[in-house]
Specification:
single chain, about 290 residues, alpha/beta, Rossmann fold, 9-stranded mixed β-sheet, 3-stranded antiparallel β-sheet, 11 helices, about 35% helix
Length: about 290
């Protein structure tokens, strides 16, 4: 099946099922253009995929498409990505938080992410600054893959910096040059929580986009957890307290979360300075991994 046909189908306002049916009907590119597909947009996507050899595209209903997305009400027909696609047999944890954390929030994000990654859990997060990016520092320090779900195209300046991170797999349902705007951020949140088996909120004020992640996860029947430290925090943790009041379970460490989800967690993180073994530094703190 020609890539240009599939890309043109992704531009039509049809359900995924109808797009696949058209693809198998032998429809021509000209017929799709007559239906409203933009040939200029198809050519831009093809040029991007040809110029960026590390980047690929997959489509709904085809091998490799993330199986978790089939449960969404309106899944993306087209996903552009680099590196890897989510493995349904993996432990996938959506981790999110405010874009403007304080020192305590950033510290708890790094520690939690470090422990999760050390216990064979793959992080799913966004391309936003703050808590989400801090979690990527931990996965990078351990040299393990993490998934970054993007709210814009993979050729935009907002995303280009991530291309240099070897342990990040970028996923985007948007065209390469699509810019970010609020509705795309909300769609990204729904995609992030659909891919993860559960959602962990590290730090959140009462008005924050990561609360939309939490509600999206709940709408999809996924568990939502909050960090225990946020129950005793200030204004930047107001959203944590609200989620806890609504029934979200608070956990102080990844080990606590793993116990609830029945995930193995033989490794724990200890804070220390000096001594034997590999140490990981974030801010003023040093961490070591201790295996049971």
């Amino acid at each position: 099946m020609k890539l240009s046909i599939l890309l043109a189908l992704s531009l039509l306002p049809l359900s995924c099922e109808k797009r696949i049916a058209l693809a198998h009907s032998g429809v021509t590119l000209q017929e799709l253009v007559n239906r409203g597909a933009s040939m200029a947009r198809v050519k831009r996507m093809l040029r991007f995929l040809n110029e960026e050899q590390s980047l690929k595209v997959c489509f709904w209903g085809m091998d490799g498409y993330p199986s978790a997305l089939y449960q969404m009400e309106n899944p993306p027909f087209r996903l552009m990505y680099n590196n890897l696609l989510p493995d349904p047999s993996s432990h996938l944890l959506t981790l999110c938080g405010t874009r403007y954390p304080d020192g305590n929030g950033a510290q708890r994000a790094y520690r939690f992410a470090l422990e999760a990654c050390a216990n064979n859990t793959t992080l799913v997060t966004s391309n936003s600054r703050g808590i989400d990016r801090t979690a990527l520092y931990a996965s990078g320090d351990l040299k393990v893959n993490a998934f970054v779900i993007c709210d814009c195209g993979l050729a935009t300046p907002r995303i280009r910096a991530y291309h240099a991170l070897p342990f990040v797999s970028l996923l985007s349902p948007y065209e390469p040059d699509d810019a970010a705007f609020p509705s795309r951020c909300l769609s990204r949140n729904m995609l992030s929580t659909a891919i993860g088996n559960a959602t962990m909120v590290i730090q959140s004020p009462e008005k924050s986009g990561c609360l939309h992640c939490a509600t999206s996860a709940l709408d999809q029947g996924k568990d939502v957890f909050v960090h225990t430290d946020g129950l005793f925090g200030g204004s930047l943790d107001g959203g944590i307290a609200s989620l806890a009041q609504m029934g979200a379970t608070d956990v102080a460490s990844f080990r606590d979360l793993a116990s609830i989800l029945s995930w193995e967690s033989p490794c724990k993180v200890e804070e220390r300075r000096g001594g034997a073994g590999t140490l990981y530094r974030f801010g003023r703190a040093w961490y070591s991994l201790e295996y049971a």
